[in-house]
Amino acid sequence: MANILIIDDEAAILNLMAKSCRQQGHDVTAVQTGRDGIKALDTEQPDLMIVDLLIGDMNGLDIIRYSEENYPKTQVIMVTGNGSVETAVQAMRLGAFDYLTKPFELADLQRTVQLGLQQTSKPASTKTEGFQSAAISMPSIGMIGESPKVKEILEVIEKIADNDSPVLLEGEFGSGKQMVARSLHNASNRKEAPFKVLQCSALPEELLESELFGSPSSRGETIFSRAAGGTVLLEEIHVLPLRLQSQLDSYLEEVNTRRMMSDLPGHMDVRFIASSAKPLQDLIEAGNFREDLFYKISIIPIDVPPLRSRIEDIEPLANHFLKQRSERTGTAKPEIDKYAKRLLEGYSWPGNVGELQNAIERACAFAEAGRIRPVDLPPKVTQKVEITDEDEKTTHHLPIGTGLSDYVRKQEKLFIRETLKYNGGSREKAASMLGVSIATLYRKMGLKLEKDKMTTR
């Protein structure tokens, strides 16, 4: 699925992390020294790197710095047995996506790896010259789609690109909120300045406070000062603690006041975007989100729809992921046959765009003769398919993977139910029409004959 480099001088931990990542289906290169890690970076140019802070011959922060300077598309996770706010802040500022403190649960490692791989390309490689049409394909930022809902979002972006009013993006996890934020930044007059992302759910409260408002150890530097002149995206703002919500409300109030007075210092001059996977209005009613902060961050609200509500975007997105993989691996781009395409479009995609990307990666690993077939897709995607009977002009849902007897039994019940409706609910007439005894009818319906007869008298 992805190419992962792991650097840790503790053999046991290294082997454990490597095994865990391989179980997720990833290709893993595991090394024990910083020098070997640098060589592997140069050779593999991995999608994601996991690096220990303290390696025998090198500091992990130096490796993160080298990776960011030379391979900005590589996502980085720092692992340390000496966790501290200062170290975490430094790693995040150097470009790390997240960090884990030893000892950690393998489930936490797997979840962090999955989140890291779902992130789109970093800002350094996300330049675009604007929007040529509504059906836009922008591989560098992932804004790909042909559906009316995507066209509507792109039209909004064009209208508000150079407006400094705060934007609130609401939508399910993985629906593409960061893609929208990047598109907005790259369409604006701030596109040459930094685009910085702070994920509220990935950091403890103390680190969040330091990143947002500074601390003695950070010498007053914040995510806003590092994004001066550009854009800040505060992801998953719905998990921001109430105490920090109050501080953010005061900070945005000061920014707004000083901007109106033309007295805004450079380190505060940013476009503010927030995203939430939960409706903030519901959290306000529950007392978990400040109403005054909500009004400040939602001057321009944008609803980002889930993938299942924009089926037209599934095929172009899938083809984009196939092209990306082909360019990354130097292999020919496989084709998706019509039956696999039907399955992809019929699945509900609870994990949205990220889940689709993982499904395409898996399919490529199993595909033969340059063609992706239904058998190559994840089992959960192929559990149900709609088959249209052209003669009867009806659609049947076939739950692939269930036993034939279970399927026949369910279809019998449906057919009996429709026959009962046709006969006005008369069990005797239905049984006669079906050519079975009344006892057989009751048995196939899962009813007890005597009890039912008593209740119908």
Commentary on this structure:
The termini are far apart. The protein folds into four domains: 3-118, 3-Layer(aba) Sandwich (Rossmann fold), CATH 3.40.50.2300; 133-305, 3-Layer(aba) Sandwich (Rossmann fold), CATH 3.40.50; 309-383, Helicase, Ruva Protein, domain 3 (Orthogonal Bundle), CATH 1.10.8.60; 402-456, Arc Repressor Mutant, subunit A. With 457 residues, it is of the alpha/beta class. The strands form six sheets. The chain has a five-stranded parallel β-sheet, with helices on both faces. The protein has a five-stranded parallel β-sheet with strand order 11-12-13-10-14. Strands 4-5 form a two-stranded antiparallel ribbon. It is built from 19 helices and 18 strands. Helix 1 (11-23) links the parallel strand 1 (3-7) and strand 2.
Radius of gyration: 27 Å
Q: How many structurally independent domains? A: 4
CATH architecture of the largest domain: 3-Layer(aba) Sandwich
Assign the CATH topology of the largest domain.
Rossmann fold
How does the overall form come out from the CA principal axes?
A: globular
Unreliably modeled segments = 120-142, 451-457
Kindly estimate the percentage of residues that lie in beta strands according to DSSP: 15-25%
Strand order of the largest sheet: 2-1-3-6-7
Task: Describe the structure concisely.
The protein is α/β, with parallel strands linked by helices. It has four domains: 3-118, Rossmann fold (3-Layer(aba) Sandwich), CATH 3.40.50; 133-305, P-loop containing nucleotide triphosphate hydrolases (Rossmann fold, 3-Layer(aba) Sandwich); 309-383, Orthogonal Bundle (Helicase, Ruva Protein, domain 3), CATH 1.10.8.60; 402-456, Orthogonal Bundle (Arc Repressor Mutant, subunit A).
